[in-house]
Amino acid sequence: MPTTPDDLRLTPDEALAQAQELLDQGRAFHAHEVLEGAWKAAPDPERELWRGLAQLAVGLTHARRGNATGAPRLLGRAADRIEAYAAAPPHDVDVPGLVAWSRALAARIERDGLDGVDPDALTPRLRAHG
């Protein structure tokens, strides 16, 4: 499966749309690459948001690959970073929804492991309206 080119430059809206499409397809690793590119290109005030979104995708990659230790750890870090933007979420990112979703999934994996997690439960909605 081809990966995202290192020199790909997307607007925030394009990055969120492409990452969502990849997440919807179960391709969390590829979504991570898109979000990591946005993180590296983001202006300083938004950088940690994009880093958190990239970490969320890495956490989902771990979950899809059966890593019940790494998945909740990354999901928790992602939630902590994303939550810092709760007062004024940029680009219509669903900050409260993503934080709650990430923490709930992390807690569920820590409690029950990955065996009972339906792969369809590993697809967050990145935007509040989308």
Task: Provide structural commentary.
By secondary structure, the protein is mostly helical. 62% of the residues lie in helices and 0% in strands. The mean pLDDT is 92.
Show unreliable segments: none
Radius of gyration, CA atoms, in whole angstroms: 14 Å
Oligomeric status? single chain
Backbone shape? globular
Observed structural traits:
mainly alpha; 130 residues
Question: Topology of this structure?
Answer:
Elements: H1 12-24, H2 28-41, H3 44-64, H4 70-83, H5 95-112
Quick take:
The protein is mainly alpha-helical.
